[in-house]
Amino acid sequence: MNFLPGNVIGIDGVEIGFRPEWVKVDDGEFNGVVNSMESVGESTYLFLEVKDMKVVIAAKGSFDVGDEVKFGITKFRKYKNGFMVDER
């Protein structure tokens, strides 16, 4: 699970958590630079640096260290003080 401050998507006062597969590559508001990668079956996990933060995303295709990857978060959970926040 990746955790980022909620303000990166316009939500103050919480952190957002998202799994590597909850992203869409080549579409979205984030740009990251590939630090390393790991291939597992048909998926490639990209270890990215995004705005001085580290995240892991799942992608298909071929990438190299140093490549810039654009992605958007398609699903996330909100957390506050280490606990998931009820969305109601």
Report a brief summary of the structure.
This protein is an all-beta fold.
Spell out the key features of this protein:
60% strand; mainly beta; 88 residues; 8 strands; 4-stranded antiparallel sheet; 0% helix
Question: If you had to describe this structure to a student in words, what would you say it looks like?
Answer:
The protein is mainly β and 88 residues long. The chain has strands at residues 2-5, 15-18, 23-40, 43-50, 53-59, 68-73, 77-80, 83-84. The strands form two sheets. The chain has a four-stranded antiparallel β-sheet, with no helix packed on it. Strands 5-4-3-6 form a four-stranded antiparallel β-sheet, with no helix packed on it. It is globular, with a radius of gyration of 13 Å. The two termini are 22 Å apart. The model has no long low-confidence stretch (mean pLDDT 93).
Shape: globular
**Main sheet specs:** 4 strands, antiparallel
> Which whole number gives the mean pLDDT?
93
**Radius of gyration, Cα only, in angstroms?**
13 Å
Output the number of helix runs: 0
**Distance separating the two termini:** 22 Å
Strand order, biggest sheet? 1-2-7-8
User: In total, how many beta strands?
Assistant: 8
**Percent in strands:** over 45%
Please state the structural category: mainly beta
Instruction: Give the helix level as a range of percent.
Output: under 10%
Low-confidence stretches: none
The sequence of SSEs as H and E is: EEEEEEEE
